[in-house]
Amino acid sequence: MTIQLIHIINQIIKFGLESNLIINKNKRDLLLEKSLINIYSLYFDINYEFDDAKYKEYNEYRYAEIRKNVEHNFPDFGFYANAFDILNFENKDNFELGDAIDDLTDIILDLLQIKWRIENNSLNDGLWYFQLIFQDHTQQHIIDLLNYLKQRNKTNLLLS
């Protein structure tokens, strides 16, 4: 699982670490979508042994730099409408503004920390953090971004 996890993480984080990737738009979106689904799928196979070791803390927070690179690599990404509570469809004020650039940036930041923990602390620490951050943060960004990609593809098909 470790090699596969690192490979998928690398597939996604390159969109935030490199400023001008040269990838066909359709291939780029397909690669991103497939990688997001793969990382989501790996979450269900997390298996680690918790330990009480005092590991180094991850201190790199590069939101602005990574967001700028994501903007360069996905200039067609934008905002979208999102419901706070999809089960509360009667509430007319149930919508918020989502941002595909922010979603991908946050996903990349989470994955960078998972990778760093695996490489600098231990596999167990990285997998523990993967489970923790995925449940509380990454999962929703992935769901929102996949939905955005789906809706955008549907809209593009209708306009073609």
TrEMBL record:
Annotated protein name in UniProt: DUF5063 domain-containing protein
Organism per entry: Chryseobacterium terrae
